[in-house]
Input
Amino acid sequence: MYESTPLAKPDGSPVIGIALGSGAARGWAHIGVLQGLAQHGIRPDVVCGCSIGALVGAALVSGKSEELAEWVQSLAWPDVVGLLDISLKGGLIHGDRVVQYCARNFFAADFSELAKPFACVATELSTGREVWLREGSVADAVRASIALPGLFSPVLRNGRVLVDGGLVNPVPVSLCRALGADIVIAVELGSGMVGRALQKEGKLAADASLPWAQRVLSAIGLAASPEQDEAGNELPALTDVLTSSINIMQMRIARSRLAGEPADVLISPRVAHLGMMEFHRAADAIAAGRTAVEHAGPGLRQLLGKEQ
Output
């Protein structure tokens, strides 16, 4: 943990921090939030992220957020599958391929090269302790922060096995404050997610109707479909159970942490309709992020003393 570090701006205005929360593919909404804030003249001085929020935040502080936005909006489902290095060792996906791509194209090499304070959240698997990463390789820190158990393989860093920071601090407001932020804007992606994977919303086109994990498993020759009990009642598929469980866990943890460590402004994009691995739907997520900022706009301007 780090103690609060005083920061001062030349004009005496408050130091603004942004905490970008976890949420897998729904995290592309962070890009829309950042775009919306910039339109209001709000640019964070401190950036902290958890999981997908760490990835988007790393691109922002590396000066590559626009390039990241262009790339994610160009992704089609086959592109997403092509970035998944299937391992089945410690997780369904190893996770190095996508992070290495981002490291080459969107991340600075080292934290020391960043112009703004930035940190990622991860979880130490053996103890459950929250770990704040803000030194060394930016890509390695992001890789640890996105290591969602069961989906991405864990990361060994400095002798510790690290997994997704969403297990302990999905929206890292406390980390922003520790890095010196006077005002913290938090972006939380879990609203409306509980039970979403189990809802029946009608039959869609054959490929689009498959939940994200079933599509991934199908791509590597495995299957995961609903079963029936002895009375003939349909039970949820393994993938639906996994998705709903992760949603419940992260929503409950986020609400608990935000209650004890509230942000000054909470932005909650409406992205419950997006699946965890639907990274090819970035345009929808980004639009939702921009809309969420517009809804929060009056409060933001009042808090920051901005007229427009």
